[in-house]
Structures are given as C-alpha cells and as structure tokens.
Amino acid sequence: MLRHALVLFSAGQDSATCLAWALQRFERVETIGFFYGQRHAVELDQRPVLRSQIGALCGPDRLGEDHVVDISGYGAIAESALTADRAIEMAATGLPTTFVPGRNLVFFTVAAALAYRRGVDVLVGGMCETDFSGYPDCRQDTIDAMARTLSLGLDRPITIETPLMKLTKAQTWSLARDLGGHALVDAIVEHSHTCYRGDREHLHVWGYGCGVCPACELRAKGWEAWRRSATA
Ligand code: ZN
C-alpha cells in the first residue's frame, strides 16, 4: 500500500532532493517548513518557487499541501549564529556555532503533530551523517530513537525516512539527476538555497551563495566532486 508522506522542506539542496525522492514513492506528499527566527527570509521565499518546480517535474498529481509553522519561540531559546547576529565560527564545543541545539528534534516533533492530524505516517528529512558538520541530531541513532519516541508518544507508528543519510553531497546531486534528470538538477541549482549568509546575488555553477561560508564551501565541493565523477 502506498502511503502518505510529509517532507521537511527548507528549500535547501538536501530537502529538495528528498521532496523529489518522496514524490516517486508515496501517493501523496505534503511539505512542512519552519520559521524559527532565521536571519534571512531567503529560504522561506524560495520554498514555493522550488516546491512547484519539483512538483511539476516529479509528481504534479502527488504534491499536496504546504505548511509553514512559526516556531520562533523555540528559535529564541536556541539562539545561535543562525538565529542571532553572531559570527559564524567554531565554538569551544567543536561544533560550528551554526548548530542550533535540538533543532531537528523540534522539527520532527512538530512535523509528527501535523502528520498525526493529517493521517500521514511517514516523515522525510534530509539529515546526513556524511557532511562532516558533526551535528548530533543528524545521526542515524538520533533519528531511529526519535522515530521510536514519536511512535510511542503518539501511539501510532511513525516512520522517519532519511534517504540522504549515507550519501556524500556529490552522491546527492547524482540522486537528483536519477530522480528528475538534468531538469531537476537545474531547478535545484537555480532555486534551492544553502548559503548561511542569505546571498542571492552571486550565481555560481552550483547555485546562488556568497561562496565562502561553510555551507557554500560544502555545496561547491560536492558539486565539483559530482562533476568530476562518472555519474555526472
Ligand atoms: Zn554562503
């Protein structure tokens, strides 16, 4: 039986690929995004543009509603470089200050509450262990424990799918190409947003961004590695 899925969709490269992936597997796919006090509205602005493009390419009859949830109260608690005017630098903990404590746990909890109301039992997120940022809430162990906690707490089986968990950024581009061809790759390049600084002025072959922040560096490296590989 085909099921319904709710994709955590931030308009970044990863969640864009997850949306395309979900559209090929589930009979109905809804999306959820979060306003948590981001310094830049860019990703929220890009969401509807990118979402409709991916829907048109990968499953126009399967793409359901979009939900944007305001959790800025949480953002105020979890203040870090992305939510306050602080320098993006490595903190003494060894984690980048872009780490927002517990962010994915809150995202999944809110997403699960929405999913429960809408009869959806699969959550899809772009968490990835291999991007070297070391975010503890992106690890498979955390996701497995979260799925179990949500299933117990809601008394309903909740599955969390993380199709990018073991992929490198280059492999994520390759997956996008497999899912939607070069048209999907082009849509993700042009309309997804990754840059921590919210730069939409400078267009590179891998997309818009400042080109120097850690998110841009990771995206540029992934793109170059994919273009050099046999799968490009
Ligand atoms: Zn950047």
pLDDT < 50 stretches: none
CATH superfamily membership: HUPs
Proper CATH architecture: 3-Layer(aba) Sandwich
Run of helices and strands:
EHEHEHHEHEHEEH
Write down the overall geometry: globular
Q: Can you give keywords for this protein?
A:
7 helices; 7 strands; 232 residues; binds zinc ion; five-stranded parallel β-sheet; alpha/beta; Rossmann fold; two-stranded antiparallel sheet
Written description of the protein model:
This protein has 232 residues and is α/β, with parallel strands linked by helices. The protein has one domain (4-194): 3-Layer(aba) Sandwich (Rossmann fold). Helices cover 44% and strands 13% of the residues. It is built from 7 helices and 7 strands; from the N terminus they run E-H-E-H-E-H-H-E-H-E-H-E-E-H. The protein has helices spanning 13-23, 42-58, 72-77, 103-117, 140-154, 169-191, 214-228, and strands spanning 4-8, 28-35, 63-70, 122-124, 159-161, 203-204, 207-208. It has a 5-stranded parallel beta sheet with strand order 3-2-1-4-5, sandwiched between helices. A two-stranded antiparallel sheet has the order 6-7. Helix 1 (13-23) packs across helix 6, helix 2 (42-58) packs across helix 6 (169-191) and helix 6 (169-191) crosses helix 7 (214-228). It is globular. The termini are far apart. The structure holds zinc ion. Residues 195-197, 199, 209-210, 213, 215-216 line the site of zinc ion.
